[in-house]
Amino acid sequence: MKNQLGEKNRIGQTEENKNEQTGKITGSGFNIDKSALLFGGLYVLTIILILLVIIEGFQS
Amino acid sequence: MKKILPIVAVIVLVMTIVYAQITNKIEADIVQGYYREMSPQAVSFESINDRVAKAIGADGTIMEYLGISSNTGYGGPMLVGSVISTDGVVKNVIILEHKETPSYIYKITQAGFFRQFAKAKAGDALALDYDIDSVSGATLSTRAITKSVQEVAHIVATEELKITPKKADLNVQIGLKEIAVAALFILSVFMSRFKGLARYRLALLGLSVLILGFWLNRSLAIAHVGALFLGYFPDPSANLIWYIVLAGALLPALFTGKNLYCTYICPFCGLQEGAHLISRVSLPIAKYMKWVRRMKDLLLFIVLFISFLCLNPSIASYEPFGTVFGLNGSSYSWYLLFVILITGFFYRRFWCIAFCPVGTFLDKAAGIGRGIKRKIQSLTSHEVKEAIQHEKSVG
Question: Closest partner residue to A58 among B295, B315, B350, by Cβ?
Fold first, then answer.
């Protein structure tokens, strides 16, 4: 079933196709969920802006 | 641990309020300091009461009367100093301390609000929208300033000048604005009761965006909650909408166990729903919800803790409501608003789900409401069971 070289497995799927469907970025040692990356990025950006708004409120 | 943490958080918040109140009293030497700031040429100050005094000159005569008074503006109490001449004319009005957004103070100054007091006399009514005009968009701040001047001036008028001050005939104002806001909340209760009406939820949210958002800019904010716990209640005759919005959001949550405000009324939620309607994209976030909820609780705690510690309900407020509906905000507020609205295209109600402190507070209130409801139901069912058993045993 497992095929790191991109060869078709028994149900006709390559590993790359499978990873595209599940939203995972694979590479040498990496296995990142793209949707988690998008959510995490936006979340962290918003938190940083919230902190900046609070600090700005204090300074004024 | 799960049950202990909220109790610890509440205890810490209560202790913070008590500590801040104890350490925040204006001491006599601070009052004297403000007097010196208002009347630098005076040699001494002779008290009329603990907040009003006569400024005595080098020749021993009364130079002028001074007073400080505190009233609640938009963000919290404003300490205002008033200088009144010996013939009863208001000479100067100074904001000594405030917790308002700086842009409001700038707006008031630019609009020439303080110039109106130049011709005012201690015996005048000195009431907003009676003999003093408010500044549109900064009504609450101007009302707090006017009330402070009035309090000092009327003490000087009655105690020193022996004049009976005029009274303004101002009653609780119930106009179109108050009726429109109350109607929104009544409609939300009806929609939650009758399932057939639920399909009009987006229409009600749209209406709220127009009325509570762009027209009045009076969304429920965490500053309302902070002010409630700190006891900073505005004058109902001047700011009835404050009470309608707070009661309209909080009471249904406590009594029905449902957070109706976020579902049916919140104008910012309406904007996000609008963004979602355009994109129709709703990326899944269910798997992150556990820690998103924890972070939201933490954010609510941090905001309330800072507000209570500084005795300033709006100091840690980071909500973008005023920015979008009042077009009034710092540069970072605009960046935050931009990011939230863009994110709203991908994640439905991203702000509500992940960051809104008011929503978190109302959810907690609804949780308490549900708990009370369950308790009452279990008690009544227990009583019914006991009554049946009693009847059986008698029979």
Answer: B315
